[in-house]
Amino acid sequence: MREELGELDRKLLTLAQREFPLDSRPYQRLGEEVGLSEQEVIERIKELKEGGYIRRLGAIFSSKKLGYVSTLVATKVAEEEFYQVAEKINQYRGVTHNYRRNHDFNLWFTLIAPDQASLEKQLAEIEILQGVKVLRNLPAERFYKLGVKLNLEKEGQQGEKRNKSAR
User: Fold this and answer.
1) Are 31 and 40 in contact (CB under 8 A)?
2) Which of 57, 61, 74, 107 has the maximal Cβ count within 10 Å?
3) Rounded to a whole number, what is the distance in angstroms from the first to the last CA of the chain?
């Protein structure tokens, strides 16, 4: 993978994030847009992922519209057990991501569950994990979703940001 993205890769990345085809052959459709075969698009996407330009390729669903509940969780974790606790927390199916903060509450994560009872059960399990000193459940009172889609076709051009929803 080259250090700088070429015009074709920039166009492919812009299309993939803005207009990924909902089709049985999405890579063929993308290829038609940029002048490549389906296999060439698959290979380029693979190279871009391996090169770190693509972190994840997949759908993002609205858990709330699907009837799920979610929360943000802040935990104080013993520093010497931080990575072990993070690994255990990551094993919960509803944990979408976590991150380290330079703060007393040093491990934060989001958790989704099919219902409030399931969410509370998982939180109770996590709260008693070895290394977890304190757990704070921080359910959202209002939801804001910010979508960022970059236009990579013109170097230096800023991405556009849109407020997707104010739930």
Assistant:
1) yes
2) 107
3) 41
Query: pLDDT value at position 52?
Result: 87
In this prediction, residues 68-94 reach a mean pLDDT of: 95
H/E element holding 161?
Answer: strand 160-166
DSSP states of 15-38? HHHH----SSSHHHHHHHHHT--H
CA distance 136 to 123: 9
Any idea what the Cα angle at residue 146 is, between residues 141 and 147, rounded to 5°? 150
Question: Quick one: tokens of 153?
Answer: 């076709």
Tokens of residue 119, six digits: 């969410």
Distance between CA atoms of 9 and 153, rounded to whole angstroms? 9
Distances (CA, A) of 84 to 79, 93, 96, 114, 166: 10, 17, 17, 26, 36
- Non-local (6+) Cβ contacts of 24 within 8 A are none
Note the residue count of the chain: 167
Q: What is the pLDDT of residues 24-46, one digit of tens each?
A: 999 999 999 999 999 999 999 99
**Residue 49: count of CB within 10 angstroms of its CB:** 14
Q: Token pair of 62, please?
A: 């609205």
If DSSP codes are grouped into helix, strand and coil, which group holds residue 66? coil
Whole-prediction pTM: 0.64
Query: Mean pLDDT for the chain?
Result: 86
